[in-house]
Amino acid sequence: MKKEKVIIILLLIITVFSCKSRENEKEVVFFNKSKEVVQSKFPFPIGYVNDYEDVFTKEEEEKLEKLIDDYEKESTNVIAVVTISSYDPYKNIEDYSLALANDWGVGRKDKNNGLTIVINKLKREIRISTGLGTEKTLTDEICKKVIDSIIIPEFKNENYYEGVEKGIRSLIKQW
């Protein structure tokens, strides 16, 4: 009987500490949160900003995370920013971006209101992919105009954070 009590107490302690360690984790609203993405061709999403190419400083990532998180809370629309050094095994950034957005399930499932910005700094490419619910408002033409007139001019001056931040703000206004 004494051993059972000790085991129960240990289990309770472990449960309490494991719950406390998750208190500070931010909930990112990607609807495909299956842990089975181990077989995926894509990395597991770490937040709204997934800087796998180290384009942004820590402070810049935090500012973008806050901008996107605040907008998601206000609108339920979800934005993911992803920097990559390669889109293998895909032939182009368009295919990679769409497949990544679908794999991660960016947006809310019932609204399909996601927007994914994929940047490959090494190849000097950028793509904005929209969910079906998003593309009704943010058409390919609007996204291309934001890329061409706002983001790329900043990127040409190596102002990657400014380009993405200004681009997101423009998209938010039009969304």
TrEMBL record:
- Which Pfam families does this entry report, sorted A to Z? TPM_phosphatase
| Domain TPM: start-end pairs | 49-173
Reading the lineage from the top rank, the first entry is Bacteria
Read off the Gene3D superfamilies from this record: 3.10.310.50
PROSITE patterns according to UniProt: PROKAR_LIPOPROTEIN
For this entry, the protein name equals TPM domain-containing protein
Which lineage ranks, top first, belong to the organism behind this chain?
A: Bacteria, Pseudomonadati, Bacteroidota, Flavobacteriia, Flavobacteriales
